[in-house]
Hints:
- This protein is α/β, with parallel strands linked by helices.
- It has a domain at 10-83 and 247-292: Rossmann fold, CATH 3.40.50.620.
- It contains 10 helices and 10 strands.
- It has helices at residues 23-38, 57-70, 85-97, 108-118, 140-148, 159-166, 200-210, 226-236, 266-271, 276-292; strands spanning 10-13, 42-47, 79-80, 101-104, 154-157, 170-172, 178-180, 190-192, 215-219, 242-246.
- It has a 3-stranded parallel sheet with strand order 1-2-3. The chain has a 3-stranded antiparallel sheet with strand order 4-5-8.
- Helix 2 (57-70) links the parallel strand 2 (42-47) and strand 3.
- The longest helix is centred in the last third of the chain and has 17 residues, at 276-292.
- The relative contact order is 0.17.
- The mean pLDDT is 94.
- Bound molecules: glutamic acid.
Amino acid sequence: MILPPDEGWTTRFAPSPTGFLHLGHLASALVAFRLARDSGGRFLLRLEDIDATRCRAEYATAAIEDLDWLGIVSAREVRRQSAHFDDYRAVLDRLRGEELVYPCFCTRAAIAREVAQSGAAPHAPDGALVYPGTCRGLSMSERAERIAAGVEHAWRLDMRAATARTGTLVYHTLEGGTVRCDPVAFGDVVLARREVPASYHLCVTHDDALQGVSLVTRGEDLRAVTDIHRVLQALMGWAAPVYHHHPLLREADGRRLAKRDGAQALRALWAAGWSAEALMARADLLAAQGSAA
Length: 293
Ligand code: GLU
């Protein structure tokens, strides 16, 4: 187990407000909240709401309200990513200046076609299709022409160039392990999308650094992408937090508890008469069963 710094752990819970919080979120928030509290550190709440098509203000407000009711309160003002696009643009500008990102004009359909034609469909460790690199080879003038013509584009990280710069990367886990990263397996990930001028990878690493998060706790579904996050941290000169990926809560049939399955919202349970203590005990029990499974 890694010991906390003198000031205790700075942790965060960073949900995307795409639905009401459920027991899985509560279990995750409790991990972060207790590690901060028990080490004399601070717990932060951050709303990862850059995707206006999926996130709703109503869910953001509800998340803060639910956590307040449970006594899981942010030690600083809640950060809403949608209010900070300038910060994320500045990161992208810097990477662009260092020629580590390139514009990608491919539509999803074009990428699917290209992959089908090549006969190989490599998947990244997070299950996403690896981008075949089509736009990486465009000349500077071709890029400039298309941008000037208003062709919609995303910005991708040139992963080989980036990792040539960073060298081999590792991260440390709370349990005391050292994990060697393999970011190249993800290919050239998107750092700014066509519809949203930022991406999860860019915003999460920027904000963890800005907010001084020293211990990132989150579900094990995000373990793999930590390799990408380490690259961005190394390129930007940001300190690497310690990581703790916890198991996800599962339904009795073993399926992951998720918003889309109508997992019971905390506020529905609250309205049905559950006390805050009982809800936390329920989340703890499910978490304990989940890790035992
Ligand atoms: N916003 C992400 C989610 O709701 C979590 C981000 C993180 O903890 O790194 O899945």
